[in-house]
Amino acid sequence: MATEPKPASPPLTERQEARRRRILHASAQLASRGGFDAVQMREVAENSQVALGTLYRYFPSKVHLLVATMQDQLQQMHETLRKRPPAAEAPSTRVAETLMRAFRALQREPQLADAMLRALTFADRSVSAEVDTVSRLTTAIILDAMRLPGPPTAEQLSVVRVIEHTWHSALVTWLSGRASIAQVKIDIEMVCRLIDLTAAG
Amino acid sequence: MATEPKPASPPLTERQEARRRRILHASAQLASRGGFDAVQMREVAENSQVALGTLYRYFPSKVHLLVATMQDQLQQMHETLRKRPPAAEAPSTRVAETLMRAFRALQREPQLADAMLRALTFADRSVSAEVDTVSRLTTAIILDAMRLPGPPTAEQLSVVRVIEHTWHSALVTWLSGRASIAQVKIDIEMVCRLIDLTAAG
DNA sequence: CGCTAATCTAGAACAAGTTTCAGACTCGCT
DNA sequence: AGCGAGTCTGAAACTTGTTCTAGATTAGCG
């Protein structure tokens, strides 16, 4: 389907779209190498052949840039998951499986994950719109995995939010070396049990 | 690179202890006013009547300083809670009540909360020891509220971790204006249901 | 006491995020 | 074509976290 960017305000010209892409690419590349600190605005500008001022016109801060990078990556992840949805019987198992799949993808690029997650949780109010987009994408991925018959109830939305909270925070503790991969898995599976709980009640 | 940051290795003299206190006080004060950004190292140094280099000897980075500030605040919170423990019947209710009490305390100083939480989630590996201390304190608070008959099982520890994840992440979304107070409450109560789940199963 | 090592201070210096500005370039339009 | 508004560039400047240095001060000890 259409992988259109969100901004509805000003339609970008071809060259502008290309610039934007180059920037995001450079950002992801630098992040993959050295994590959050390695994404230096001057270097991103240089690597994407754009003036520093232009970089800042496209992304008003380093955090904006990295959150946009995360949007990009999540979108890809979402499509990948769409193609091969989890097969398990129970919704909670499907969600856990989905998140573990995403987790394995992040493990392949831990530095990139570090950059994106740190930016996401460090973001202040000025980035809330962009962070919200990421959140909605994550919610969509989880809801997809749940395959609800109808629209989610308020209670189910709360469960999804709690799963997201756990997901983000567990990743952060893993990235900072305070939790093992196994522990993240256990915690994800634990929080997914809330799904059964609301299905039954 | 002297080896004497946190570990109780070298006992501090009176004057050193006083300096440390002044620094933490200045940090909390500045944070209360303007949040994370308002805690500027030069200003902390000035307000606590300490040279910049000394400040860095006591706290090797801004994040270290703010995480230590959080330790300080949490400790107070823990004692306050010890004095008036939650009265409710069900463990899950007691935990939810406890966290909501802490939440209300944070609401009184939202800027301070912002500074501490942003530092906590932004912390990289070099701060993991200090972050871990905060995490253990939080765990202790939650376990206190649960009032388990014996030592917690592995499963219960996972539940506590998930609650902590939710707690931190929910606070972050609240601080960045993406979730209401009511929503945080709902999510906390939701995740606390996991306690009943493991008590029953 | 008087010595020595550690600590503290003031201040400069450095690094990276962010802002600013003058001039060159593009785009959409007529 | 040619014009005007908006965009891009290159470079310098500014801000704040962090590091470094040289000289004063302090703590502990014989």
TrEMBL record, chains A, B:
Indicate whether Cell wall biogenesis/degradation appears among the record's keywords: no
* Known DNA-binding region: 40-59
Keywords on record: DNA-binding
InterPro entries in UniProt = Homeodomain-like_sf, HTH-type_TetR-like_transc_reg, HTH_TetR, KstR_C
Q: Which PROSITE patterns match?
A: HTH_TETR_2
Q: Where is the signal peptide?
A: none
Q: Which residues form the HTH tetR-type domain?
A: 17-77
SUPFAM superfamilies per the UniProt record, alphabetical: Homeodomain-like (SSF46689)
Q: What is the name listed in the Swiss-Prot or TrEMBL entry for this protein?
A: TetR family transcriptional regulator
- Mind giving the lineage of the organism this protein is from? Bacteria, Bacillati, Actinomycetota, Actinomycetes, Kitasatosporales
